[in-house]
């Protein structure tokens, strides 16, 4: 379900489609044919548009995530993006659409009812912009809404009631792609509105890719395959880990509905906008590609770093997204935030994503057989971020950094022996250290290949001043298939080291049977932590280890508010105001270090009153890997509910809020007066 928030100025006035929040306004809306009967889920898998468009997921750029409606969105910017597509190699990598989002038009139509481009932003008109983009061998996209106005506060004209004339204008301008939003829809049936625009676009005779943007409100994956080429499955993405993760989880189950000419669209890319780490952006790009999602760059390419361009330009990852078989990756396993997602490729290989949702390194493993490959003596495994090939006896595994993804392509291969054996680097032991107190880590170097690794060596390094000392062997003359070199290490941070995250690196080298030297590395973070003070503390006064939130940041002593930090309100449950607590939004997880020294967590929990009766959530308290307490589903009408958990012996306490099983819609949750007793 769409999240009915004001996200910048974009979602401010929204027609209520299913909920009936807006009544009929008396606006004249042309009659259109009744919607076709709903098709079955299985029937919707088969594409019914035979126009040959979007046979692979569209790739390109959309300005909204980086500029919104600011003045910098203009003709010069759009032409500059087209230039950068060429000079930065993005066109050659497969990106072709340069798409204008909202705010390109004047707020009023002309005397003939036609759309008018903003003469300040686009002095040459949209047709001139299209000509320029086409001159670069690229295509132009445009935006409007299936309502009386678009989503911006300024009230730009929507296409409801003007579908055929607007579509003809787009065609006359040379538009190649239409994003059709859902604001101010006046309660008109969604299928009716989107089908009308499909017919209007078809009537122009110009091939135009049609992107349905109704936020997944009416499950378009079940009915839109014969209407649009792609459809949004979720609300808008934000440039933070919680938002990206929530959207990923909503889109993954929809794999059966995607295919050539009809794609699930989990929204634009945030890569490069600055709200996530490069590790998280690589996960974002990897998972969108495995899901055969449209790859629409949402960052300002004029300011893009080399790291951003390296991610967006990874042609081996792009090839996964653009594979002509058109399968969306399917979930193989997802236990405890360790995800395996496999995508069948046209050449018979499998692209396999090992995705770590959690805040610490995790071993994630599967097998060639589990991802659908036939039995073989060995397989070639290609790491699509390292750009290296290895041989494996059938195991596909890696220790994946927090919030990271290892993306590989695996296939039976008669020439597998030409590649060195795949090596997995592993960790065992807590990565949480108290300054001045030694901790023990065990590292492993495991041969996954069919051939032995020889002359194996391993090293572990940490920050300057840290003690990192091996307590067992760091070399082995050979490591056979399935065996490992295990090394025990003493690691300590100097007394007085500030709390925080510190980088350590595990490095290894070995030689293949052919004498080729192969090096590998695993970078990971260790946290320097302090135990909570004895007695009772408010959790909002303690440092957390990690915090993931479905919308905006976790807030201390206020409600979640909107997407910006610090925009919450006093925590209020059932009319009762609380001075202390945590304001979150499903899906959320906040972790605290307790160092086996604490006994109980208590809180009053519920859906914050700021959502005016909306929202359903469920609360959980975890002590290490054990669920210590849970509420079941709570609604806004229930007010506060007490929740208490015994967390004795736990190193880490995790506070979790889920969406209650009904999708994410206004799920603002409070851990009011949350306390920890140690």
What can you see in these coordinates?
The protein is α+β, with helices and mostly antiparallel strands and 678 residues long. The protein has 10 helices and 38 strands. The strands form 8 sheets. Strands 7-6-5-4-3-2-1-8 form an 8-stranded parallel β-sheet. A 6-stranded antiparallel β-sheet has the order 9-10-11-16-13-14, covered by helices on one side. Strands 26, 28, 31, 33, 36 and 38 form a 6-stranded antiparallel β-sheet that branches. Strand 2 (97-99), helix 4 and strand 3 (139-145) form a beta-alpha-beta unit. Helix 5 (163-173) crosses helix 6 and helix 8 (278-290) packs parallel to helix 10 (315-321).
Please bin the fraction of helical residues: 10-25%
Secondary-structure class: alpha+beta
Number of E strands: 38
The rounded distance between the terminal residues' Cα atoms is: 40 Å
- What overall geometry do the principal axes of the alpha carbons give? globular
Mean pLDDT value: 91
Low-confidence stretches: 1-47
Contiguous helical run count: 10
- C-alpha Rg, in Å? 27 Å
Q: Characterize the main sheet.
A: 8 strands, parallel
State which percent range the strand residues make up: 25-35%
For the biggest β-sheet, the strand order reads 7-6-5-4-3-2-1-8
């Amino acid at each position: 379900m769409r999240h009915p928030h004001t996200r910048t100025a974009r979602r401010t006035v929204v027609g209520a489609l299913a909920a009936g929040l807006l009544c009929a306004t008396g606006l004249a809306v042309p009659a259109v044919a009744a919607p076709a009967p709903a098709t079955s889920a299985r029937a919707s898998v088969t594409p019914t548009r035979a126009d040959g468009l979007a046979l692979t997921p569209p790739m390109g750029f959309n300005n909204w995530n980086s500029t919104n409606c600011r003045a910098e969105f203009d003709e010069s910017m759009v032409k500059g993006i087209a230039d950068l597509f060429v000079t930065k190699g993005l066109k050659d990598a497969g990106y072709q659409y340069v798409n204008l989002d909202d705010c390109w038009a004047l707020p009023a139509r002309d005397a003939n009812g036609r759309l008018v481009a903003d003469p300040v932003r686009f002095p040459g008109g949209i047709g001139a912009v299209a000509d320029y983009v086409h001159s670069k061998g690229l295509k132009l996209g445009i935006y409007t809404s299936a309502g009386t106005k678009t989503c911006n506060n300024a009230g730009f004209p929507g296409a409801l009631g003007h579908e055929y004339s607007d579509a003809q204008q787009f065609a006359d301008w040379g538009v190649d792609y239409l994003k059709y939003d859902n604001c101010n829809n006046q309660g008109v049936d969604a299928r009716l509105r989107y089908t009308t625009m499909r017919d209007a676009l078809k009537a122009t005779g110009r091939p135009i890719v049609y992107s349905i943007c109704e936020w997944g409100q009416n499950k378009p994956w079940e009915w839109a395959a014969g209407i649009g080429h792609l459809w949004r499955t979720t609300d808008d993405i934000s440039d933070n880990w919680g938002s990206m993760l929530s959207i990923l989880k909503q889109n993954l189950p929809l794999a059966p509905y995607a295919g050539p000419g009809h794609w699930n669209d989990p929204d634009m890319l945030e890569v490069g906008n600055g709200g996530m780490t490069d590790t998280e952006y690589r996960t974002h790009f990897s998972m969108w590609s495995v899901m055969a999602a449209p790859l629409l760059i949402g960052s300002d390419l004029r300011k893009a770093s080399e790291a951003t361009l390296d991610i967006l330009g990874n042609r081996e990852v792009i090839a996964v997204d653009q594979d002509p078989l058109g399968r969306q990756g399917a979930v193989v396993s997802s236990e405890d935030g360790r995800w395996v997602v496999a995508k069948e490729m046209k050449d018979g290989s499998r692209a396999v994503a090992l995705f770590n949702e959690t805040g610490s390194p995790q071993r994630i493993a599967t097998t060639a057989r589990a991802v659908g490959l036939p039995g073989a003596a060995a397989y070639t495994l290609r790491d699509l971020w390292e750009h290296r090939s290895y041989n494996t006896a059938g195991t596909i595994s890696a220790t994946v950094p927090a919030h990271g993804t290892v993306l590989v392509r695996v296939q039976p291969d008669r020439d597998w022996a030409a590649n060195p054996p795949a090596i997995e680097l592993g960790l065992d032991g807590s990565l949480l250290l108290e300054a001045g107190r030694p901790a023990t880590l065990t590292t492993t170097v495991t041969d996954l290949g069919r051939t032995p690794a020889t002359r194996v060596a391993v090293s572990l390094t940490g920050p300057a001043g840290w003690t990192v000392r091996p307590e067992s062997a760091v070399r082995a003359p050979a490591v056979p298939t399935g065996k490992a070199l295990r090394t025990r290490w003493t690691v300590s941070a100097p007394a007085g080291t500030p709390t925080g995250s510190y980088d350590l690196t595990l490095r290894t080298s070995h030689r293949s049977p052919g004498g080729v030297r192969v090096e590998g590395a695993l970078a990971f973070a260790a946290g320097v932590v302090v135990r909570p003070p004895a007695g009772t503390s408010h959790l909002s006064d303690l440092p957390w280890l990690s915090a993931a939130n479905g919308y905006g940041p976790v807030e201390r002593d206020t409600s979640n508010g909107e997407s910006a930090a610090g925009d919450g309100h006093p925590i209020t449950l059932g009319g009762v105001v609380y001075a202390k607590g945590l304001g979150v939004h499903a899906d959320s997880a906040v972790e605290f270090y307790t160092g086996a020294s604490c006994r109980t967590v208590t809180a009053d929990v519920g859906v914050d009153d700021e959502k005016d009766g909306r929202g359903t959530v469920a609360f959980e308290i975890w002590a290490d890997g054990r669920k210590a307490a849970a509420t079941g589903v709570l609604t806004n009408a229930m007010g506060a509910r007490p929740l208490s958990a015994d967390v004795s012996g736990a190193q880490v306490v995790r506070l979790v809020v889920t969406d209650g099983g009904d999708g994410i819609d206004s799920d603002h949750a409070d851990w009011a007066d949350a306390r920890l007793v140690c």
